[in-house]
Amino acid sequence: MLRDLRYAIRRWVARPAFATIAILTLALGIGTTTAIFSVVDAVLLRPLPWKDPDRLVTMWIVRPKRLETPVLAGAANRGVLSWPNFRDAEQQSTAFEAIGVWGLSRPILSGEFTEVARGMFASASFLPMLGVRPHLGRFFEPFEDEQPTDSVLVSYEAWQRRFGADPRVLERHVVLDEQSKTIVGVLPPGFVFEGPAPEFVLPYGHQSASNRTRGNHAYQAVARLKPGVTLQDAWRDVEPILRAGEKPEERTARIEPLASTQIGDSRRPLWMLLSAATLLLLIACTNVAGLLLGDAAARRQEMAVRTALGAARRRLVQSLLADSATLGIAGAILGVLAAALLTPAVVALAPADLPRIDSVGVDARVLAFASGLALLTTLLFGIGPALALSRARPAGALRDPLMAVVTVDTVSNLIRRSMAAEEFRATLSAIFGGAALLLAVVGLYALLSRTVADRVHEIGVRIALGARPHDVQHLILSQGGRLVLLGLLVGLPAALVATRLIASLLYGVSPVSAHVYLIVGATLTAVSLLAMVLPSWRASRIDPMAALREG
User: Fold this and answer.
1) Where are the domains of the chain?
2) What is the pTM of this model?
């Protein structure tokens, strides 16, 4: 096998243009798919980084009457708790081991420079319930939920950046919102619950009494189920507790897994993006398979000679798969490098509230995925040409070689952030569309090049009988034009049907727009014409005498 690999490498070194096109095509498909998988893996596939995450749930108040109003429906389906709601559930519920509340904040940090820091409020039960332990010091005590306190926790990253990783940081002071706070603990490395990673975590004890009324709903609740308790059991237990208070007939409760809450509406779009990237990879594999089938025209006679000299078919398939393997390995290496460059760009395009987006990266899991992808793509684009070429019959091939033809803010910022998820999906979809168009051009070029190779004898005869260069060019261009026309006739109606699948993801935009289809059709035709120019020019330059001798 090593000898086959060395021979394959020498072949591709001798044909750099062919090898470069094939490798870059594979790298584009593998790199794009791997980059999107890194996001899907971090956001959807990995378990939450907390103790027994399957037992963590979120708790909401639901107001059914408001669900009928579209503007209010989102908040009405997931209404946060008041402080009395939290205390009632904590003291009366029997379905939970612990209940905690939290919320984001943006405290003003005073010092050498005044700046807005990333902050978070947390009840004393919140961090221990998640299974988090302090890196230094302690977390909040239960009395700090109710009594004024100057305690504050600092993140591991802020401890390193702002305090030089000083192990004596405990009892040092920081000024937040013009109040001196005492650092009592350091969070573990990489702690982030939802949204931006907090630099400081504050207790609720410093809040005024007005913030603790039953009508002030400002506390997001997370709870840990007792072993064996189901979501339905927990709902039956806590629903009458949360209904108590003001207008109980207008409210009910909602319990759902923490993972579902944090992922939210991101699941379907991310799977759709990964599906689009996978389709892009399949197109890349198909195009490389077409290139290899075209290359087979020059090797049919070689395979026939090797067969006539006694080479077994298994040996020929192994040799041909070595050709594919070298392309696949090179494409995978470049693909992983491309993924390492693409992944930060994808993260930068993603909305800031996409859960766990900060943990996205090309790690061991992603590299394992890319390796499996490389093996699969090698088989996909390599096995067909290898089997087809290994069937060469010695007598027939040596007599007349023939080949079979086979992607606290301004209103403008609030609007921009509200559209961030849609812009993220639209941008990536546009990138996939452009990449798919590029691969389609490569595929058409590969197919026409292979057609020219298959028809060398015929074209030689035509030229010998008086056909002029532009006649030969017209012959090849007309064949390519028929393929493009067929593709448009099939592809545009298929796109019209496919838009129904994404109609729910569009707002204020019609999925059926005549000018878009006209622009797409014109663009496809133009780039397809560019793909046809070189094969048609090569066909017009065929030497008839050489073609007739080879025939």
Assistant:
1) 64-250
2) 0.65
